[in-house]
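User: Hello, beginner here. Can you help me understand these amino acid letters and fold codes? It all follows right here:
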Amino acid sequence: MKIQSRTLLSVINSLVVILIRLIFKTTRLEYVGDSIQRCPFADTGSDRFLYSVWHDSVIPPLFCAVEHNSVALISQHRDADTIEAMLKAAGMGAIRGSTSRGGASAIKKLIKLAEGKHIVITPDGPRGPHHKMKPGIVFLASHSGRPVIPTAFTATRYWKFQGSWTSIWIPKPFSKVYYLVGEPIEVPENISREDMNYYTELVQEKMEVLEREVNQLVSETTSEEIVSFRKAA
């Protein structure tokens, strides 16, 4: 059932944001390696990036800081109204648009709207497939001159809410949330279709590598906690 009232939708999203913020106050944020230096809220000087975030992992980067130096690119479809309302309640800006429609003029408009801000993109959204990179973020990188930064997030304990084609997870209270931010991937200007496919596969590969690394960290942490618990018992 869709909520038709914008006022009611705003109230519900504000309450959800407050609840998630309370949860994050109890969690421990773990930035792997030098990841904190390249996060969307970090001081990156004059550099601006395109952050690639899987659709099911949007909660950690959204709630890792109170103030954001980034905006999220979301679909123009009406189904994205709820996402936009939640982003607004969480303090992150949102731009309605597409990375693959409208050509160069649409890209210029998008970059102008995001001037001075990083852009967070879910490359497997809004309709999936799950964790499958679409070329839009590479197309935008090629026409904007902004490098793509792959990311991976997970937590030692979390709730998973299943949607129509993907899930979304929220860390449980007092869990540890891991942030792994990769190195920037430079994309040449005005690349060919063949090169577009190459860089799309490259970003996909980097996202998968980071995901394996961060999941391995959680596995090791969980194993250590089990050992410590058994020793204490």
Observations:
- Residues 106 and 112 are 10 Å apart (CA to CA).
- Residues 6-226 form a domain with the Glycerol-3-phosphate (1)-acyltransferase fold (CATH 3.40.1130).
- Strands lie at 28-31, 50-52, 70-74, 93-96, 118-121, 148-155, 158-162, 167-171, 176-181.
- The helical segments are 6-26, 59-63, 81-90, 103-113, 136-144, 193-232.
